[in-house]
Amino acid sequence: QVQLMESGGDLVQPGGSLRLSCAASGNIFKISTMGWYRQTPGNQRELVATITSGGSTNYADSVKGRFTISRDNAKNTVYLQMSSLKPEDTAVYYCNLRIGRRDDWGQGTQVTVSS
C-alpha cells in the first residue's frame, strides 16, 4: 500500500500563492503518474494537474498559467505551485498516484482563498 501525505494547505488571500507537497512511500513513485485533484462540498472531484514519469504535464483549463506541477523523484515528492489564487480555487486538494491498475489517494489538504 502506497501512502500519500499532502501538506501545505492554508488560508490565503486572493492573488496570493501557495505550494502544496505530496510525499509518497514505497518505491514506485518514479514510474508513476502523479496528479492533483480538488473537491468542494457537493461536487465531484476534479482534475487540477498531472505529471507523468517522463515529466509531461497536463492542466485543467481553469488553472493553466497559474498553477505548476512538478516532481522530485529523489524525494518521492510531487508539488503544486499555485499563484494568482482566486476564491474559486478554494477546495480540498488531493494527491493521486496512478500506475497500471493502481490508483492511490492521499487524505487531502484544505486550501481556502479568502480576504
Layout of secondary structure:
Layout: E1 4-7, E2 11-12, E3 18-24, E4 33-39, E5 46-51, E6 57-59, E7 67-72, E8 77-82, E9 91-99, E10 102-105, E11 109-113
Parallel strand pairs: 2-11
Antiparallel strand pairs: 1-3, 3-8, 4-5, 4-9, 5-6, 7-8, 9-10, 9-11
Order of helices and strands: EEEEEEEEEEE
Number of helices: 0
**Rg estimate, integer Å:** 13 Å
Class computed from helices, strands and strand pairing: mainly beta
Distance between the amino and carboxyl termini: 39 Å
**Strand composition percent:** over 45%
Shape, per Cα inertia axes? globular
Question: How would you describe this structure to a colleague?
Answer:
The protein is mostly beta strands and 115 residues long. Helices cover 0% and strands 51% of the residues.
In brief, what are we looking at here?
This protein has 115 residues and is an all-beta fold. The protein has strands at 4-7, 11-12, 18-24, 33-39, 46-51, 57-59, 67-72, 77-82, 91-99, 102-105, 109-113.
Properties at a glance:
single chain; 11 strands; mainly beta; seven-stranded mixed β-sheet; four-stranded antiparallel β-sheet; globular; 51% strand; 115 residues
